[in-house]
User: What shape does this take?
Amino acid sequence: MGEAVAKVINRINDVVYNGAHHLDLSDCVLSSIPVALYLSTSAVADQIFSVSLANNDLKILAGKFFTFFNALTELNLEGNMLEKLPHEACLLPNLKMINLAKNNFQTFPDELTQIQCIENINLEGNQIKDIPIEALNNLPSLKSVNLELNPINKDDLNLCNIKFELTL
Assistant: This one.
């Protein structure tokens, strides 16, 4: 456990003291976001454009994360145990790419259909059965949605006139 804590501290310090724009907290055995993250990055949070929390043990991501790191353009949450996103996720005005692969989503996160500048959504390897095609078609910047390895109900899908690349 001490090694994981040291890894988190070192990676946070690298961002704060070196002016990095990418915060990599992947593979840190995190089950929640440590309060120290918010305290230590408060002066540079608006300069962090990319965060990776991949391959941790996150079951819930609090809304505070999305309001605190509101300059994000890329967010990698692959390989956690997330089942849903908080409403605040739709408040990321610059988010272009989100990776939610290999989590526990049962339904497509509606919050993503409200992010107007989103370009790429990866939900590979979840438990999603239905896709909100119409809502996704209304996103002006959307380029691709990856839903491979999901039990998609393909019989009910109307794949005509899709304006983005859909991988099933």
Observations:
- The beta strands are 22-24, 50-52, 74-76, 97-99, 120-122, 144-146, 165-167.
- The chain has four helices and seven strands.
